[in-house]
Amino acid sequence: MILRHTTKEVKERTALTVNPAKTCQPIGAMYAALGVHGCLPHSHGSQGCCSYHRSTLTRHYKEPVMASTSSFTEGSSVFGGQANLLQAIDNIFGIYDPDIIAVHSTCLSETIGDDLGQIVGKAKDDGKIPEGKHVVQASTPSYVGSHVTGYANMVEAFVKYFSFNTNEKIRQVNLLSGWVEPSDMREIKRITEMMDIKSVLLPDTSDVLDTPMTGKYKMYPKGGTTVDEIVSMGNSMKTVAMGEWCSKKAAIMLDNKCKVPFSLTDVPIGLSATDRFVQALSTAGKVSIPEIISEERGRLIDVITDMHQYFYGKRVALWGDPDTLIPLVEFLVDIDMKPVYIVSGTPGKRFDKRMEEILSEKVPEAKYKNGPQADMFLMHQWIKEEPVDLLIGNTYGKYISRDEGIPFVRLGFPILDRIGHSYFPTVGYQGAIRILEKILGEIMDEQDAKSPEESFELVM
Amino acid sequence: MPNKKNYTNGLPDPSELKEEILKKYPRKVAKKRAKAMIVNDPSEGQEIMANVRTIPGIITQRGCTYAGCKGVVLGPTRDIINITHGPIGCGFYSWLTRRNQTKPAEGEDNYMPYAFSTDMQDENIVFGGEQKLKTAIREAFEIFKPSAISIFSTCPVGLIGDDVHAVAREMKAELGINIFGFSCEGYRGVSQSAGHHIANNGIFKHVVGNTDRERTGKFQVNLMGEYNIGGDAFEIERIFEECGITLLSTYSGNSTVESFAYSHTADLNMVMCHRSINYIAEMMEEKYGVPWIKVNFIGAESTAKSLRKLADYFGDDELKAKVEEVIEREMAKVKKVAEEVKPKVEGKLAMMFVGGSRAHHYQDLFKELGIRTVSAGYEFAHRDDYEGREVIPNIKIDADTRNIEDLEVTKDEEHFRDDLVTKKAKLEKEGYTFKDYQGMMPEMSKNALVVDDVNHWETEKLIEFYKPDIFCAGIKEKYVVQKYGVPLKQLHSYDYGGPYAAFGGAVNFYKEMERMLATNIWKLVDAPWKHEPEIVGSISIEA
Pick from A5, A2, A1: which is nearest to A18 by CA? Predict the structure, then answer.
């Protein structure tokens, strides 16, 4: 047993987190900033954070992840990091020439109270920001919320800085994508195009974190939402914000600043959430839903009806981010699986409420928790009390999977030990089929590995 | 631009490249970077600027003090509960991401697959986190019953004034197990290096010498600065065992806290990674009289050389014979693979930019295959790692490093090994050298470009200039370099392979080089239609 010290008995903890189901804000800000064209993320803190965040994103995507850092020393930690950031801005534009520097903070610069807005203002006054170039900043203290919060803060910062209402309404819908993979961003754009809706997707990491090999390295790949697009978001008809934790802040900002109303939907994972997303799109874009979308939906329903016997009543444990877990749990309930244990390190009161809505009737035995000490250690203890048939979550689940002999589907962030997650979507009806394929693959592999010879089956 | 065929008569002079790189920088930056880039000439005692603060915005590959302390030095010890005192990130990112393998016996503790954190929230920043830390330690003790707990401070801890050492003392008294803290806040020093030093001090102060142990063999040694990435230490352990050498303790691959506690009873310390562990080696000599030698188990020839040096230290004929027997047997296996691989890779060009040690050690492995290192550098090594230990008295300690404590160490009258001091003096008279680290630069070719704290811009220019056949670095560089069509070998994680140490490791590495340098895919990067004449579009549908 690799996790041999995980006890069955649950002792209440109030201070110790063991095997977290979250990480810290700045990595989310970095990921969001990579979804803007010509943008270099910048970490205002000591350089360790920046290296860790780049490494984690790189290990997940197997792609270059660029970011710079203020490289605080002990002196700047005492006297403030203004000089470091000013120097960094100078060096970055001089050497690396991005269109935008997107600055986020860390627990270090937040604790000493560096005012990013003031420092960036000074950089502007000092003429350190070249004509036509931009420095955007978001405050992302690591001791508040999680990586998801950092993502939300950076997306909000982009619309706050760029989006502008010029009173020339454009027949266009803003899409705030939530923390999903480049392939998911691509899929969201495909669905929107199928519905014949002009849209701006922010952020958009497709063609940034899934670039082709050409023998040439491009520091700023062709993907990413452009400045012009973000500016134009202020003139759109409506915003469809996917995921309360990731996208609500930016949606509210667009509403307050540019008077673009929004509808908040879940990230379109699974059947019901995709249904609601498609409907929200049709309302926002004032278009009817085309037949090809209904056909895609029909194919998903067909797979579910074909394969229902393998899903029915199976107990599942999940961990990850609220915006992913909520629609995913709902999807599992839709196909009659039983999501019994759910943890998310990301705090937020609405999590409980949403889980209760989805689970109280169909899976009354479900245990769920988010926020402090809602970690993978606790979830593993629950599993030891009463086992499950399937695990769904990021790579860290492989240790529990191996110890307990439970089939395991990788979904979420980070996935460090497999590829495919950034190339094939899990959103939309197509993505839902892929999730089912993965679940079924794991369940059937388990059956094939463990069934006695006489009942080893060729056909399922 | 040099042509590859020029390399037959030595390496081309990269001065022009250096100028081109510097031209892009603001004046002050250029001045600083110029001192960190040396066109190597081993016949001259050249000075490089190293271990200085990172230039903001330059896109460094460096990490922080916490990473050097918790991630590197203490992370691999399996039976200490390492609690990260800070917000969740630091603990999360250092959770199982370095490949320090460990092999506990049945029933032994192993906390390495776990991440422990106080997960500080804003109220802990405002009102202080000491109470939460105490509670976290109690909870860890109650649930896991470990034999030791250590606390690692992250950036905000020092700023808000949490005293982790006072908490450690209090909890140690309350719980009766060894509990100690590290002030390894990320902003201390200028890189991971400060974290190594802080870790060394902490282990030495709180663990080394805590237990005595009866002699278990004729030849008792410690291996220092070997972290068992991909099983490197396992391979070295195997060789030692076959030679009849007792390995008391490894700092810190496949280690336990107890093995550190009695490590002062060794007869000799062998230092692999000079940068990260030379402090303990030095302190152990001062306090206990245990001398140290530099060894290198990367490369088959280097391994043989290090084993012979070890045997010479003990001067025992039986041991010498055994060592020769093992070398002969192992080398036969190594040579067989080398003969197959070398003709396929000989003459290729390598570059390596790795931490504080491997950029040097791996040049030996490449040499064995006839692969030439055209450029190399460290992220965070000091001048002594580049130029050799004799420059240590001349190294100026700057403001960024001054606050890293140098422990006052005094002689331990009870345990001090006068016999080893006598032995050392005698051997030295015979020409045997101790503390013999000559550094990387003297061993590199003339005109090789040595670059400290290489950044992204410099990496791009280096690739453009040298067009290397293989680039050795880490995960952040890997996919950048490969987009250029240049294969990158990770020499931190080994790309999830290994071991690469000692004889078995050399065989693995040779085969890996064969794979990486011969793989088809680089020739298939361009689509075939990019080389063929373009078909002119036509609206007719006739064939």
Answer: A5
B214 or B297: whose pLDDT is higher?
A: B297
Report the distance separating Cα A227 and Cα A214, nearest Å. 26
Q: Say how far apart CA B496 and CA B7 lie, in whole Å.
A: 32
Helix-helix angle B274-288:B192-206, to 10 degrees: 30
Q: Which domains does chain B have, with CATH numbers?
A: 65-186 (3.40.50.1980), 220-343+388-429 (3.40.50.1980)
Instruction: Enumerate the residues of chain A whose CB falls inside 8 A of the CB of residue B187.
Output: 46, 72-74, 76-77, 108
Give the pairing of strands A199-202 and A315-319: unpaired
Question: What's this model's pTM, rounded to 2 decimal places?
Answer: 0.98
Whether residue A1 is predicted with pLDDT greater than 90 in this model: the reply is yes
Q: Is the CB of residue A85 less than 8 Å away from at least one CB of chain B?
A: yes
Per the CB < 8 A criterion, the answer to whether A114 and A83 are in contact is: no
**B542: pLDDT strictly greater than 90:** no
Interface check A218 vs B, CB under 8 A:
yes
**Which residue, among A368, A365, A331, A332, has the nearest Cα to A351 in the 3D structure?**
A368
Q: Is pLDDT at B307 greater than 60 in this prediction?
A: yes
DSSP states along B137-155: HHHHHHHH--SEEEEEE-H
List the single residue in B29, B58, B113 with the smallest CB-CB distance to A399: B113
3-state secondary structure string across B26-88:
CHHHHHHHHHCEEECCCCCCCCCCCCCCCCCCCCCCCCCHHHHHHHHHHCCECCEEEEEECCH
Contacts of B96 in chain A (CB under 8 A): 396
Decide if A141 touches B, using CB distance below 8 A.
yes
Active site residues of B: 64, 67, 98, 196
Distances in whole angstroms, Cα of residue A255 to Cα of each of A132, A136, A167, A236, B312: 26, 19, 14, 11, 78
Q: What pLDDT is recorded for position B534?
A: 65
CA distance A107 to B181: 20
ipTM of the complex: 0.98
Cβ contacts of B196 on chain A, cutoff 8 Å: none
Q: Specify whether the backbone of B178 is left (phi greater than 0), alpha (psi in -120 to 50) or beta.
A: beta
The β-bridge relationship of strands B116-117 and A17-18 is antiparallel
For B188-215, b where at least 16 C-beta lie within 10 A, e where not — what string?
Answer: bbbbbbbbbbbbbbbbbebbbbeeeeee
pLDDT tens, position by position, A116-168: 999 999 999 999 999 999 999 999 999 999 999 999 999 999 999 999 999 99
Chain B CA closest to residue A141: B122
A239 Cα to chain B: minimum distance (Å)? 32
Model confidence pLDDT, tens digit, residues B97-148: 999 999 999 999 999 999 999 999 999 999 999 999 999 999 999 999 999 9
Chain A residue whose CA is closest to B103: A2
pLDDT band at A249 (very low <50, low <70, confident <90, very high): very high
Domains identified in chain A and CATH numbers:
25-161 (3.40.50.1980), 173-292 (3.40.50.1980), 298-454 (3.40.50.1980)
Check residue B8 and give its pLDDT. Answer: 76
